[in-house]
Amino acid sequence: MIVLEILFFAVVAAFLGWKLYSVLGRRTGHEKRFDPFGQSEAPTGAAEPESNVRRLPEPTRPVPERAPDRGDRERRKIEAAIAGLGGDIRRGLDEIRAADAKFDPVDFVGGARIAFEMILNAFAQGDAKALRPLLSDQVFANFNGAIEERNRNNQRLETTLVGILSADIVGAALDKTADKSGEARVTVKFVSQQISVTKDSEGRIIEGDPNEVANIADIWTFQRAVKSRDPNWILIATESPQ
Question: Could you give the domains of the chain?
Fold first, then answer.
């Protein structure tokens, strides 16, 4: 009896094995080939037709370098201009730097450009309070006198700074006679584009043209005590080039 049962189960196992082989062990022509260069497929969607073309990996594209912004270009331009200075100007800058290790001519020019715009706007707006800490006593007296004269005549000055074309150091010196620490003086020539119009109390134009952009050159001298805790420079002289 036991022998018959063993034979029965052996026949059943053989039959099942044959059926599995007939289904799983044969190629149907639709099996996918393993492609080591191919891209992984999405989990859903119809299978792509078989192809003998092998896909190569996408080439790595170099990351382009960041283009220098306007600030970078301006700094390089200032650095190049200062590098070309010589004679008394170079000696003056070297003396100032020796007396004040924090002095950087490039940063100074950048700050002078900002000061130029601030002073120009404050003067046009008649803002003596904003001008006071930026100017020496003599220069403030001149600027404030012009503001008061405009006010007495009921006139208004409208100035638009279109842009600063250049700001170049044209003089530098360390005045050691001022005190033991010395005073640094740096002169800058500004060339700017401005629209300037003076109007009366009724808004009528007395002087200037609102449609005319003029190129204006100014020579300003800034001063600072090199050992002072105040990092700011003040404007001590203005003039127009000959």
Answer: 72-239 (3.10.450.240)
